[in-house]
Amino acid sequence: MNLELFKIALKNIKERRLRSWLTMIGIFIGITAVVSLISLGEGLSNAVNEQFKFLGTDKITITPAGLQGPPGSNTGNAKLTQQDIDVIEKVRGVKAVSYRVMQTANVKFKDTTKFRLVAGLPTDPSSAEITESVGFRIETGRKIQDGDKYKVMIGNDYAEEDNPFKQTITTKDHIYINDERYDVVGIMKKLGNALIDRAIVVHIDHAKEIFDLEDEVSVIIVQINEGEDTETVAERIERKMRNDRDLEEGKEDFEVIIPTQIIETFNNVIDIIVYIIVGIAGISLVVGGIGIMNTMYTSILERRKEIGIMKAIGAKNSDIASIFLFESGILGSVGGIIGIILGFFLAYLTELVVAFLWMEGVLLAHYPVWLVIGMLIFSFLVGTFFGTFPALRAAKLNPIEALRK
Questions:
Q1: Residue 285 belongs to what H/E stretch?
Q2: How do residues 268-315 score in pLDDT, each as one tens digit?
Q3: pLDDT (tens digit, 9 = 90+) per residue, 179-209?
Q4: φ, ψ at 42 (rounded to 5°)
Q5: In 56-177, alpha helices (H)
Q6: What's the pTM?
Q7: Burial letters 146-184, b for 16+ CB under 10 A, else e
Q8: Where are the domains of the chain?
């Protein structure tokens, strides 16, 4: 019997296609916003967690204060220099110090030109140990060495056809960075980390020449001694750098970051943003639910005679209520399905825009199964909840009065 009632509900929706589509607009707009935001939030959190997983818990990162955007894109006056490196190396608990220079450059391979992030790495043994520990390992060719000029090693993604240049790059090829020719001498191992798998690396001395940075560095990475507490060493580094720069506490022009701090802070910020916008999107779902309720009440007025006939031939109140609940549930579910599809498309489109404007692979939307199932159930519940009151009203109609009208 329930299957027959479901077929009747489906038939009623099909007969009122335009109204049904208009009714679902609020639902799928809300679901689209929720799905796209959660997908992007999950993807962004995964990317950050993956990045710091390679960095390790025994590493401390020092950056200029107010760093915004990709590494090397600091637009403030704060800078890190060789003097900071010398100070940090003398801090108790510090095992080794490495550093990088990172800037966006015009990179050309054959006929294709892209803006890519170019990193300069040091080659001294202690620095090399840290860079290798965070993923800069060679698979083919060799590493950048002291004295290398116009030599470059590249991330593993460039050795595959599906890369920004759409052509495989090998150690026999050369690329152009800011119109200067560079021979590819090494290809790094694939790690599944976009920042490393698509890295373009030159010797740090040459990078400083390219970007005219003199003794400035973009980021400093510190490895602590085994058994040392990361937070304690970070506090020592901050105190020593503050004294060396003659700065008051709380007015530092640099940031000392430990992995757990940045992961926790970043995830909290992402969660807050997602919660706020999901809350706003929830308003659209409520509007969509009210639209379903309004449609159901209108449908009752139009189908009073039909309801009266059904009751006259033996339909129970529960049967009438079920038909309207099925209709509202179907409207909510279909709106949810459309919203999920549009949400995934919007998240993917955002991913492409970020890849085009900055770097491919940095923001990869994540589509967890629980999100799909959860949104399907939620959209169905929204539909049935707002369809409950019209369904009860339809079930209570007096068949004689309904047939008179």
A1: helix 259-302
A2: 777 777 777 777 777 777 878 888 888 888 877 777 777 777 777 777
A3: 899 999 999 988 777 778 888 999 988 888 8
A4: -65, -40
A5: 82-89, 125-133
A6: 0.55
A7: eebeebbbbbbbbbeeebbbeeebeeeeebebeeeebeb
A8: 2-49+264-404, 66-252
